[in-house]
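for the recovery benchmark. tokens below, seq after
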């Protein structure tokens, strides 16, 4: 049966973003702006890697994550590089570093839940958050090394002002990663719906093959048991 009616609320932004990326790529090609076309096509290619990975591995990604990656890549490649926002605004680069690190910290927490198959661990949740921050910091450090390498080998200017740019990126990475870790802990322990925290819950819930013991309510129930135990001990 063919369904009719309005598009779902999440469908329209997705169509606008993907359609806009295609139009930007076409406009860049037609107007002899290869950098603009390459930036848009590169953003689309990176975003399509997630559904491709799902198809190959069977690991499902959170709904909308691929479109979110597209939006992030457009912000970095098209607005940042092609449109010059990296050059004109120091805040733009720091903002993107912060967002990326927050998502990476959530991914780190998800990986830290693998040994328990998604069940509440015996350790405190702040330890999972620390592991998440460490994972995000590791990826961030690797990115800074990559920027240094391409500047040294190809003579580019990825690091711009050198040490100040690198230290600013590191600070933004740590700030974003710390937010991601706290958002994960608040979501698991108290059900607080902080921005981006739904990625962690959705990923675990959609992959029972690796998170067979996952239940979001289990963390809050475990918190109640911990409080009761502390009261009895007191």
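predicted aa per position
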């Amino acid at each position: 049966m063919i369904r009719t009616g309005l598009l779902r609320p999440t469908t329209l932004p997705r169509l606008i973003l993907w359609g806009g990326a295609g139009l930007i790529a076409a406009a860049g090609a037609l107007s002899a702006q290869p950098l603009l076309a390459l930036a848009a096509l590169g953003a689309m290619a990176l975003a399509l890697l997630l559904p491709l990975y799902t198809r190959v591995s069977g690991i499902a990604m959170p709904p909308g994550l691929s479109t979110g990656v597209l939006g992030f890549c457009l912000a970095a490649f098209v607005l940042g590089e092609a449109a010059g926002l990296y050059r004109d605004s120091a805040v733009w680069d720091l903002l993107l570093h912060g967002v990326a690190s927050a998502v990476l910290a959530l991914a780190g927490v998800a990986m830290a839940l693998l040994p328990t198959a998604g069940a509440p661990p015996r350790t405190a949740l702040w330890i999972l958050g620390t592991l998440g921050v460490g994972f995000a910091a590791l990826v961030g450090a690797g990115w800074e090394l990559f920027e240094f390498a391409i500047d040294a080998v190809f003579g580019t200017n990825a690091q711009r002002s050198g040490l100040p740019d690198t230290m600013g990126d590191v600070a933004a990475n740590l700030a974003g990663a710390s937010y991601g870790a706290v958002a994960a802990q608040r979501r698991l322990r108290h059900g607080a719906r902080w921005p981006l925290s739904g990625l962690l819950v959705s990923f675990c819930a959609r992959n029972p093959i690796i998170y067979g013991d996952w239940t979001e309510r289990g963390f809050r129930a475990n918190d109640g048991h911990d409080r009761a135990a502390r009261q009895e001990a007191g």
